[in-house]
Amino acid sequence: NTGRNDSLLPFRNGLPSAIDNTEMSTIARRGIHFMQRLNSANVSSALLEKGQNRVIDASLTLIRERAKLKASHYLGELVRALGGAVATSSLLGVPLGHNSSFLQGPAFAPPRIREAIWCGSTNSTTEEGKDLQDARVLTDVGDVPIQEIRDCGVDDHRLMNVISESVKLVMEEDPLRPLVLGGDHSISFPVIRAVSEKLGGPVDVLHLDAHPDNYDAFEGNIYSHASSFARVMEGDYVRRLLQVTFYS
């Protein structure tokens, strides 16, 4: 018993300093139900936005605390004391699929990729002799709770900002560097934007894809999976962009 009134967690003035997966799910579910009631009651847009902000804050707190745990937890300090190195590559899932113009499967990819990585039947040793099963080589900060945020009525503009902020939060925890798992190709924009802004200037990008994804607004959607690099280039987040292996 934590002594907290969990029913008020998503909408009180402060958030707990650390949130685990169970708490996040509880916050998200109650936040969604609360937002649905507000929508059906035709309440003011200001109150709706306040509720959305609480859910977004909880989501960012989740990513922040996971990153801190991986960077400064005993896996960090103890490993350093033993003369080892802390993992720099850190998985961050972005299960977003609604900006795809065809099937919605990309939203289910992050957990499936993890299953393949951690599967006992795979060879987890790299060419350099590093074992991906070793937490000092590869760590994981979980997924951005995309669906929970969208269920609260958050639009794509704010959702892209949440993704960017999540990437930055991982980068803030030295020595972590995000290895982002999509998700449809629309996430390229917020991820590249985050890295550029965090590093203080345009970055070089190697883009391996069948398509350039540079429609201005494919099917009327500026955040379409086919428009991500149009957003990247117009934002001046890239110094050099090398796009390889197009077939259409």
UniProtKB/TrEMBL annotation:
Q: What GO biological process, any one, is recorded here?
A: putrescine biosynthetic process from arginine, via agmatine
Extract the GO molecular function terms from the UniProt entry: agmatinase activity; metal ion binding
The parts of the chain that form a coiled coil are: none
**What's in the keyword line of the UniProt record?**
Hydrolase, Metal-binding
Q: Which SUPFAM superfamilies match?
A: Arginase/deacetylase (SSF52768)
Record has Nucleotide-binding as a keyword = no
Q: Does the keyword Metal-binding apply?
A: yes
Q: Which PANTHER family match?
A: ARGINASE/AGMATINASE, GUANIDINO ACID HYDROLASE, MITOCHONDRIAL
Family stated for the protein in its record: Belongs to the arginase family.
- Write down what this protein is called: Arginase-like
**What organism, scientifically named, is this protein from?**
Trifolium medium
